[in-house]
Amino acid sequence: MTKKTPLLRQFGFDARRRRALLELIGLDASDHARAAYIQKHVIGPHGNEIIEEFYRCLWKNPQAKKILEQGFDLTHLRASQRAHLQTLGVGFDRAAYFEGRLRVGVVHARVAVPASLYQATYSLLQRLILARVPERTAKGSKSYRALVAYLTKISALDMSLAIETYHGVHLGALQKSISALRGETLALHRRVDTDSSTGLVNHGRILKLLEQELTKTPERPVSVIIADVDRFKSINDTHGHVVGDKVLQGITGRLRSAARRGDVIGRYGGDEFLIVLKNTETKTALRVAERMRARLKDQPFDFAGHSIHVTLSAGVSTARADDNSESLIESADAALYRAKRAGRDRVLLAMAMLDGVQGEQHTTDPSLSRLLP
After folding, report:
1. Is the whole model's pTM more than 0.85, yes or no?
2. Dihedrals φ, ψ of 183, to 5°?
3. Which among 50, 121, 282, 327 has the fewest CB atoms less than 10 Å away?
């Protein structure tokens, strides 16, 4: 197989497979003489009338007529059909013959010839050729039967090769359509589940992910962080919503940089974020929340010549045996509310997690040293 036979390579018709197909059909070296006979005594003198009758029959068929009326150049079609007849069976065991017959299937697939019509036309062409076998070859004689058998076999070879690529093209197109549809579906899901401003998963999606995580691995700890940007409204009021959106996007980037692989950050509200931490104990959740708080406080945002300082308050909670997504979020939200009341710019743990730790403590206080290593 060479560059001149790309379909042989594509469909795996190496020498071994070609021989096996010829043996299955029953074509052998003795059929070369019959191919030459058909070319000399049938197609040579009667090729044009075979083609004309072939197209007259097609015009009588509603399906075929509809295809022919699509604007095809009938002169070109007749020329192609003539070339097809003039090569019928000539060197049927060669790679070039296989390549040519495979190419026929590609062409017919591209013009959307129905499979049933496709197979019927092969049978029609076989009958038209057989009807013009010279009268001196008496019907019923041994030589006549051999010619009939040959025409049946060469038609079977041509049809099997053309149908191989015919279905291959349709299958390839179907696979592309399926892939495109899957891609469109995934893109649609991403658009539906994604917050357009920050690129984070939106409120509905982050809640679904939390519910899935709580039911999927009940024996593994799940923690959440609810984080709220302190006095974000004043940024919008002072600098405008365009700058406010840019700050919000910058905050998203820093939250992502502080999160771990596998942590999922969602935009829970306007300037509020819900972070789901899978398989995460309370101590680790507190470290992640504190890292997020520090990333925002340590460096201001610079937009349009303005240096904008941002701080973050957060509440942390870890699911208990009787928690669902709603109760888990409520406990983290209560901790966030306490953090706001305590002066903002801090991370507080849900009361149920304190295990006896007293007072309004947050992660930067030494009294939580037993929770943070």
Report:
1. no
2. -65, -40
3. 327
> pLDDT tens digits for 46-56?
999 999 999 89
pLDDT at 355: 59
> What is the rounded distance in angstroms from the CA atom of residue 187 to the CA atom of residue 363?
40
Give the mean model confidence (pLDDT) for residues 203-229.
89
CA dist 154 and 26 (Å) reads: 9
